[in-house]
Amino acid sequence: MTEARAAVAALHRYPVKSMLGEQLTAADVTARGITGDRALALHDTATGRIASAKHPRRWQRLLTLTATTDDTGVRITGPGLDTHSTDPAVSKALSELLGRDVTLTATPPAQARLDRADPDAVLRHGLTDDTPLTVSELGTGAPPGTFFDFAPLHLITTGTLDTITALHPHQPAAARRYRPNIVIDARTGGFPEDEWPGRDLRIGADLVLRVIAATPRCVIPTLAHGDLPRDTGALRVLADHHRIVPLPGLGPQPCAGVYAQVVQPGRIRPGDTVRPA
């Protein structure tokens, strides 16, 4: 990685877990990730679990909603909905839209869990009521009290997106299918992030990240994201061409991008250089 070939291409924040988010012109990054990222989530009162599009039969409609921040909180918009996190009726409006009793919350319940669809089962059989699910705890490598699945930041490179597109040319890879926080312009071919776990990266003048693992991909990239249609190839190309071991104890998984933790906070912008720390 060189300064001339690696720079921040885009920054993304997702104020409500599993909803569409917003692109940023600058971001403050702390130990809890980009300020305001996954600040809120939906708590399913029937199951006690956090709503996640990783359980698509129940929650894929979340990806029709967009969450953006303003001076007073988070605005949520989508087909048939325009509400705000400060509205006393926000949870009722979301419950009516989603057909389940949910509460918009900023505080994860104790030992918060979410359901995940098995990605290989989805590729074999599609989305059915019988698609196997696993239950995972939130925040395995994330700061306590957050809604991150594993870590506070997710990075992906333009090189990886270009490679996915080359392997699946009928539907060019869109970064938002993979829900990164930071898209890095690193067009080196292949999957550049494979060599990053265990390394520290400096972004801009101050931010230092520690890359901790490759990102195993689930069903989410295959789902419709707003105006992006469903595309099983977004996962299949990784299952067929890029299975690696992201963590000890796991077998080879379809991966794209990496998870990172924050070593030193900082403010970053598109165009900032990305280099070894």
Automatic annotation (TrEMBL):
Annotated ranges, domain MOSC: 112-277
Protein name: Molybdenum cofactor biosysynthesis protein
InterPro entries, alphabetized: MoCF_Sase_C (IPR005302), MOCOS_middle (IPR005303), Pyrv_Knase-like_insert_dom_sf (IPR011037)
Any one GO molecular function term: pyridoxal phosphate binding
Pfam family, one: MOSC_N
